[in-house]
Amino acid sequence: MIRLTNLIFPLGASHSEIEKGILSRLHIESKQLKSWKLFKKSIDARKKPSIMQVLTILASVKNEDRVLHRFIKDKNVQKYVAEPYLIQHYALSKKERPIVIGFGPAGMFAAYYLAKAGLCPIVLERGAPVEERQKQVKHFWKTGQLNPNSNVQFGEGGAGTFSDGKLTTGIKDRRIRFVLETFVQYGAPEEILYLAKPHIGTDHLVDVVRNMRLAIQGLGGEIIFHARFVDYMQENGYISEVLYEIEQKIHTIRTHTCIAAMGHSARDIFSMLYDKGIPMEPKSFAVGMRIEHSQAWLDQAMYGQKSNPPELPVADYKMAVHLPTGRSLYTFCMCPGGEVVAAASESGRLVVNGMSNHARNGNNANSALLVGISPKDFSSLHPLAGVAFQRQLEENAFHAGGDTYAAPVCCVGDFLQKRTPSGLGVIKPTYPLGIKLAEPEKYLPTFITETLRSGLAAMEQKLHGFTVDDAVLTGVESRSSSPVRIKRDETCESIGLHGLYPCGEGAGYAGGITSAAVDGLRCAENASQRYYNTV
After folding, report:
1. How far apart are CA 164 and CA 166, in angstroms?
2. How far apart are CA 187 and CA 491, in angstroms?
3. Phi, psi of 110, deg, nearest 5
4. Taking the model in full, what pTM does it have?
5. pLDDT, tens digit, 9 for 90 and up, residues 333-360
């Protein structure tokens, strides 16, 4: 196969037009082209309103070596060799099956690997199956009655299930393609294999998650829901038992392998592991608010035209500014055509996040506006000081919203001018549990609010209209990543306990659906080596 990069076509170019472009680029006749497929697609809107699509194509041609020889110095015409991701099959060398804690992206792909390897993993998930979890989340959004073990943060699929389902990642890893192909195999749109900014959407993620669960079970895996990991036992420095709780009853499973993929909000597990002496350290994370704009405004601002053709994706943005103070402000988890959702997992603490469906057809665009936080900002050097910092902000936001899970909001104009919020403009908040007008100073420290003000002004220079007066700010966004890193060695094993594999976002080794899934695979690869009798 030949990989052709940076092929530029107008929006809506037909199959035959693209094929003509391939022939022209390779200087070959149509009879030499055996087949081709789209490998990557992105949009170039830098010269708006003239918007183009940039494609990467995989082409199969006759006399491939001869064709490639003509382009030996052309980096946009290269031989493509697929790197298949292979899973070694093992036989259980010991009686105990591997345990996976948590069934978010990291735990799901760890369990999927172990199941395909023939190791029959047991997954402990504190929340509910995704069908039941959906009902519980909607009930919370309607009534404010929170289930602390099954919510936006906890339950089958993890926090990513109630998000935009974005699959973009900054890491480079051969496992990424396997993750995307697996998602497609179990129901995700095939376009995620080639779009430059792939996303699944909450509505599709629910089906994908359920289908992966059924596949794992079909391969001999077992998923135990409503099972909260509460303790473990060890023998001679090796994990020997895992203890979990269901309806206030403790159960025990013997094992010598446990992948801990508990997610970034499993604060009780962080505390338990710390109390048992598992080495960990505080890590940098970020907190801030959600900003909402009109999606129609954003589409016009990004594409330069009032009416966009159907070939154009719903517009999004990604920005970061570095300020003279040494602080930074950046956008995160941008949800085009989405909504701001209630994402609390602890009683009396308010958290917001963003979510959108695959169509991204809501009236508002929203994104987190985050200020970087480092351990030096905490009042303590304790490994769990970041957790305490998050909790304090969430309690402050809960009180600022009126102690009912209503969210504190204000308009950007009032915030920038330091005015007491007096009302809303054209843009209506999408947060489901009601709002209360409140200054962000009521729940955020001064260094964060001042960074937000300076950063917003700088972002306005990048995207005109970003600080329109009636854009809505909703707080508090505090769960962008884990505030803890559980130390592990080069084989992903805890440096404090053999057989324990801290994994994914919660352990501090990932930052999104795809990177968490990749880390789940990496941990499973290493953990499976303990079952050394191959088939």
Report:
1. 5
2. 32
3. -65, -45
4. 0.94
5. 999 999 999 999 999 999 999 999 988 9
